[in-house]
Design a protein that fits this description.
By secondary structure, the chain is an alpha+beta fold. 26% of the residues lie in helices and 26% in strands.
Length: 351
């Protein structure tokens, strides 16, 4: 990964974007992709879409969501302590003792999730969200009300950290890596002759119901869609691989197989992987994928979909971990797939 691309990835990771608060990250995504795309569009769902070769008859929608899990403020007590609930599938069990950033009315506010001292009994064994609070240092509710209001969002305050062997840890790798990848595909294809239109979408609100994906697909009316998300790596202690399968960081991009997935698209992805001698992993999605693909495939008259995923450790935590090398592999695979399309492919299973 070159320096400029890596800086862009880190810029995305350092920009808070809980579901429903994606405006800031989308502006940065568009500012980057406009240098390479023929056209940039937005829609009512808050999606940002970078387009190459817009006059082509066959349209390929690439979707990676930019939103992250987070918190929402639900009340402030008389002493200025702030109570909160989840936005998306974020576990309350991880929160005690961590730094928080509230996206307040007048800017970002630092805070911490308070922890009862062990000397005073510590946290109760089965605590819930209502047992937790954020301490920003306010003296009372009046002071807090000047900076925070009900409905404000909050996220963990962490920074990306580089580990050994080209691996990075950060919050929001699910799925800012996806919106990064679809942007990088646009960059790599820019100026090259391709036979299809490419519509790379940084989608919104995936974590709370795949909402942006519907608007992206309904608005672009694609011939096919390739969703880029993360999937559970299972290569660390304590994971039951007999139950959850074996998926390794740097084991290769993960292709989904199951009833939601169009087999013809998968065949072309495997062909592209073979051409560049890239190993892939396979995960089973017999009913649903749990990604934007599930919403996209039911838009308009139906959209053939496939899913390419990046193996990720510690999903929905502040320390999600992926490989930078594998991000590059996913970009390379999708780029090769698009370069191989003639624009005359038929993705109907019975034809």
């Amino acid at each position: 990964m070159d320096k400029n691309s890596k800086e862009f990835l880190y810029e995305l990771l350092n920009t808070p974007s809980p579901s429903g608060y994606e405006k800031d990250i989308q502006k940065k995504w568009m500012n980057y992709t406009k240098k390479y795309a023929d056209k940039i569009e937005t829609d009512i769902g808050g999606n940002a879409i970078a387009i190459l070769n817009p006059k082509a008859k066959m349209k390929v929608l690439l979707a990676g969501h930019c939103d992250e899990i987070g918190f929402i403020i639900n009340r402030i007590d008389d002493n200025g302590f702030i109570f909160f609930g989840p936005v998306g599938g974020i576990s309350h069990k991880i929160a005690p003792g961590l730094k928080i950033e509230i996206l307040g009315r007048n800017g970002k506010l630092p805070g911490i999730v308070g922890v009862n001292a062990e000397h005073h009994g510590g946290l109760k064994e089965n605590f819930e969200y209502e047992d937790l609070y954020i301490d920003c240092g306010f003296k009372d509710k009046k002071e807090a009300d000047r900076a925070v209001q009900t409905g404000d969002f909050a996220v963990y305050k962490t920074e990306p950290m580089e580990l050994f062997n080209g691996r990075i840890s950060s919050k929001g790798l699910d799925d800012k890596t996806g919106c990064f990848i679809v942007a990088e595909v646009i960059r790599r294809l820019s100026g090259k002759k391709i036979n299809v239109g490419v519509y790379s979408a940084s989608t919104t609100s995936e974590e709370i119901g795949l909402q942006g994906a519907y608007f992206a697909a309904a608005g672009t009316n694609p011939s096919l869609a390739l969703v880029c998300d993360v999937t559970w790596a299972t290569d660390y202690p304590g994971v039951n691989t007999s139950k959850y399968g074996e998926y390794k960081i740097e084991g290769g991009p993960v292709l989904a197989k199951g009833s939601p997935i169009n087999t013809k698209i998968n065949e072309l992805l495997l062909k592209a992987a073979g051409k560049i001698k890239m190993k892939v992993q396979i995960e089973l999605t017999p009913k649903i994928t749990g990604t934007d693909a599930d919403r996209i495939r039911f838009t308009n008259r139906g959209v053939p979909v496939a899913l390419v995923s990046l193996p990720l450790r510690y999903m929905h935590s502040p320390v999600e971990t992926v490989s930078l090398k594998e991000i590059d592999k996913v970009i390379e695979l999708i780029t090769e797939f698009i370069k191989g399309l003639t624009g005359k492919e038929n993705f109907k299973p019975l034809e």
